C-alpha cells in the first residue's frame, strides 16, 4: 500500500477516535462500560445531559453521519414496510410523501424542516408538494452536505420546489413569529431536552392556521420508569443515538397538546400504544 494512502488512513482513524472520545465523554464511565446503575443515578446523569443537548447532538452527528449516509442514505429516519419487495429508498420516499399529503401541503407554501439532517426529506417533500423548505440543523456538517446535494439536484432557492439550509437550534429557531405555513420534523425532535418546549417554539414560528407534522420517536406506554430493565434499555438507546430525553407515547401526546396544538391525525407506525 502506498505510504500516502497509509498516512491518510491513519489520519482518518485518528480523527474517528477523537470524535468517538468526544461523544463518549457525555456519558459516565459506568454507562460507557454498560455497568448496572441505580435508577436515581441514571436519572441524575440524564438531567445533566439535558443541559448539554446541543453539544451532544453535534458530537453525535459529527461521529455518525458518514455511517448513517452509507447505511441509510440521505434520510435519517425509519419507515414502515408494508410491501416486503419494496426498496429502502422507495419506502422512505413514500413515507415522506405521506407526511406531505396528510399535512395538506399545497404548491407555493413555505415551511421549515426542524432538524433536517443532510436534507433527504426536505428535498423530496419540496419536489413532491411544490413547496419551499428551509432546513434547520444544529450541525454545520449537515448544512454543508445538504446544500451540496441540493445544488447537485438543482434545488437551491426560495421558490416552489426549492430548498435552502441554515445552521441553528430548533429550541431557539432563528426566524420571527408567524413566519411559516408549515413545519415538520422527521424523528428529529427526539433530540430536544423537552418536547413541550420544542413544540412550543415551533408553534411560535407557524402562521395562524399553520400545520405541524411530526414523526416522533417514542417508547410505548408499556415503559415503566421504576423497572430497572426498562430504564437500562432506554439508557442504552439514548447513548447509542445521542438522545437526552426519550419519552413515552403518553408523555409525547401530553407535550403536543400542552403546546397549544389541535391534534388532527394520530398514527402509530411501530408497535402499539394507547393515548
Characterise the protein shown here.
This protein has 275 residues and is of the alpha/beta class. 48% of the residues lie in helices and 12% in strands. It contains ten helices and five strands, in the order H-H-H-H-H-E-H-E-H-E-E-H-E-H-H. It has helices spanning 3-24, 29-32, 39-51, 53-72, 88-103, 120-129, 140-152, 195-205, 228-241, 249-258, and strands spanning 110-114, 132-137, 163-167, 180-186, 206-215. A five-stranded parallel sheet has the order 3-2-1-4-5. Strand 1 (110-114), helix 6 and strand 2 form a beta-alpha-beta unit. The model is unreliable at 1-14 and 271-275 (pLDDT under 50).
Features:
single chain; 275 residues; alpha/beta; 5-stranded parallel beta sheet; 10 helices; 5 strands; disordered N terminus
Describe this structure in a few short sentences.
This protein has about 280 residues and is an alpha/beta fold.
Amino acid at each position: 500500500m502506498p505510504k500516502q494512502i497509509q498516512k491518510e488512513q491513519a489520519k482518518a482513524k485518528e480523527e474517528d477516535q477523537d470524535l468517538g472520545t468526544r461523544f463518549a465523554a457525555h456519558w459516565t464511565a459506568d454507562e460507557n462500560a454498560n455497568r448496572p446503575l441505580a435508577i436515581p443515578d441514571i436519572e441524575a446523569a440524564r438531567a445533566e445531559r439535558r443541559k448539554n443537548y446541543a453539544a451532544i447532538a453535534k458530537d453525535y452527528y459529527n461521529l455518525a453521519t458518514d455511517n448513517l449516509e452509507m447505511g441509510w442514505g440521505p434520510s435519517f429516519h425509519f419507515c414502515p414496510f408494508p410491501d416486503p419487495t419494496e426498496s429502502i429508498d422507495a419506502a422512505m420516499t413514500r413515507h415522506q410523501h405521506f407526511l406531505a399529503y396528510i399535512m395538506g401541503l399545497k404548491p407555493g407554501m413555505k415551511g421549515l424542516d426542524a432538524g433536517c439532517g443532510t436534507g433527504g426529506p426536505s428535498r423530496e417533500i419540496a419536489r413532491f408538494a411544490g413547496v419551499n423548505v428551509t432546513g434547520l440543523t444544529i450541525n454545520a456538517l449537515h448544512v454543508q452536505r445538504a446544500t451540496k446535494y441540493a445544488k447537485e439536484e438543482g434545488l437551491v432557492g426560495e421558490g416552489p420546489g426549492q430548498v435552502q439550509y441554515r445552521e441553528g437550534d430548533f429550541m431557539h429557531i432563528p426566524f420571527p413569529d408567524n413566519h411559516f405555513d408549515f413545519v415538520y420534523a422527521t424523528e428529529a425532535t427526539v433530540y430536544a431536552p423537552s418536547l413541550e418546549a420544542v413544540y412550543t417554539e415551533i408553534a411560535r414560528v407557524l402562521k395562524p392556521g399553520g400545520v405541524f407534522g411530526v414523526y416522533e420517536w417514542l417508547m410505548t406506554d408499556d415503559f415503566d420508569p421504576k423497572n430497572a430493565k426498562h430504564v437500562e434499555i432506554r439508557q442504552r438507546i439514548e447513548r447509542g443515538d445521542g438522545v437526552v430525553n426519550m419519552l413515552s407515547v403518553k408523555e409525547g401526546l401530553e407535550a403536543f397538546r400542552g403546546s397549544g396544538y389541535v391534534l388532527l391525525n394520530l398514527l402509530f407506525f411501530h408497535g402499539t400504544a394507547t393515548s
